[in-house]
């Protein structure tokens, strides 16, 4: 992920900001009666990006990836509309407890910018639901220049989005978080429709760490800076923060690790899984990572 990349990450203050005042209230509305769900993964399973992760002779990258992780943040669906047959093929290659978190196609979010996208959205959802019980949550990522003037478009899209398909959103224009009234309108829209508010932890855009949850789900897109001096401390801080949210009523943790150079993503994921297991008493399987990496 190039978004938020900086040339000198050692100059960035990676401290997690305090919670938005309304996050605790959102979490406390939801009585925790079910086991905590935690899904950790990478953004893609491509061998070229995840260099040295796959053992020599691996023939099916998804089958191996899903033996090591319990989820994938599926960015491939952003670039191409996959038909139901392909979705079913991916589903059948993965274990029973595996989940897919596909990104909404760019034709909807970036090309048409949510204008006249009813038919495209229907096609996208009709195909994506073939993940069936392995569909975790789809997410809408909007362009950097999609600002508040487009609020009505976003509201219409969310209001009409199929309620049977769990949805999260990621807005990137600075005014969504820089203006208190705009932020309030956005958060209220998401809360009203039970849409999760994505948090992005990336070096060059610390404003995207708004720490405002709108559902009892923490959907975190963590972007490492390929900077060993900061990565472990950042992940440790996330474990601390997520533990606090769990105590308040958090029900779902969806944590996806990116890198500007993706080859270290499995290594950082393994570290995060180890720490979250230690802290929360969970038993997530940590992926096997090759010797000589960061971990």
Give your account of this protein's structure.
- The protein has 295 residues and is an alpha/beta fold.
- It has a single domain (16-280), classed as Alpha-Beta Barrel (TIM Barrel).
- It contains 11 helices and 9 strands.
- It has helices spanning 23-28, 61-68, 76-79, 84-92, 106-111, 118-128, 151-160, 175-178, 180-192, 228-248, 265-280; strands at residues 37-42, 71-74, 99-102, 138-141, 167-170, 196-197, 199-201, 217-224, 252-259.
- Strands 3-2-1-9-8-7 form a 6-stranded parallel sheet. A 3-stranded parallel sheet has the order 4-5-6, with helices on one face.
- Strand 1, helix 2 and strand 2 form a beta-alpha-beta unit.
- Pfam families: DUF72.
DSSP summary: helix tally: 11
| Rg calculated over all Cα atoms | 18 Å
Low-confidence stretches: none
Name the CATH homologous superfamily.
Answer: Protein of unknown function UPF0759
The end-to-end distance, rounded to whole angstroms, is 21 Å
Question: What is the CATH domain class?
Answer: Alpha Beta
Helix content: 25-40%
The profile of the biggest β sheet is:
6 strands, parallel
CATH topology: TIM Barrel
Shape: globular
Q: Mean of residue pLDDT?
A: 92
CATH structural architecture: Alpha-Beta Barrel
Q: Helix/strand-derived class? A: alpha/beta
Total beta-strand segments: 9
Amount of beta strand: 5-15%
Order of helices and strands: HEHEHHEHHEHEHHEEEHEH
What strand order characterises the main sheet? 3-2-1-9-8-7
Please, how many domains?
A: 1
List the helices and strands and how they pair.
Layout: H1 23-28, E1 37-42, H2 61-68, E2 71-74, H3 76-79, H4 84-92, E3 99-102, H5 106-111, H6 118-128, E4 138-141, H7 151-160, E5 167-170, H8 175-178, H9 180-192, E6 196-197, E7 199-201, E8 217-224, H10 228-248, E9 252-259, H11 265-280
Parallel strand pairs: 1-2, 1-9, 2-3, 4-5, 5-6, 7-8, 8-9
Helix pairs in contact: 10-11
């Amino acid at each position: 992920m190039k978004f938020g990349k900086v040339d000198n990450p050692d100059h960035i203050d990676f401290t997690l900001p305090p919670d938005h005042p309304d996050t605790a209230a959102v979490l406390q509305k939801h009585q925790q009666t079910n086991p905590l769900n935690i899904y950790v993964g990478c953004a893609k399973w491509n061998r070229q990006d995840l260099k040295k992760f796959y053992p020599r002779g691996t023939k099916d990258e998804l089958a191996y990836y899903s033996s090591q992780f319990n989820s994938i943040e599926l960015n491939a669906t952003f670039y191409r509309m996959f038909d139901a047959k392909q979705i079913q093929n991916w589903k059948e290659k993965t274990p029973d407890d595996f989940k897919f978190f596909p990104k909404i196609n760019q034709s909807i979010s970036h090309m048409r910018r949510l204008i006249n996208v009813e038919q495209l959205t229907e096609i996208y959802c009709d195909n994506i639901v073939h993940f069936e019980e392995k569909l975790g949550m789809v997410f809408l990522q909007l362009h950097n220049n999609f600002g508040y003037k487009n609020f009505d478009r976003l509201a219409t899209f969310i209001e009409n989005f199929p309620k049977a398909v769990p949805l999260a959103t990621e807005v990137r224009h600075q005014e969504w978080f820089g203006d208190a009234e705009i932020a309030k309108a956005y958060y209220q829209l998401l809360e009203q429709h039970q849409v999760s508010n994505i948090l992005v932890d990336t070096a060059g855009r610390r404003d995207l760490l708004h720490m405002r949850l709108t559902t009892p789900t923490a959907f975190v897109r963590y972007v490492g800076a390929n900077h060993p001096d900061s990565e472990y401390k950042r992940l440790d801080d996330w474990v601390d923060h997520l533990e606090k949210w769990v105590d308040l009523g958090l029900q779902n943790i969806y944590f996806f690790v990116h890198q500007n150079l993706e080859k270290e993503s499995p290594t950082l994921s393994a570290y995060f899984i180890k720490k979250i297991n230690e802290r929360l008493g969970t038993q997530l399987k940590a992926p096997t990572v090759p010797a000589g990496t960061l971990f």
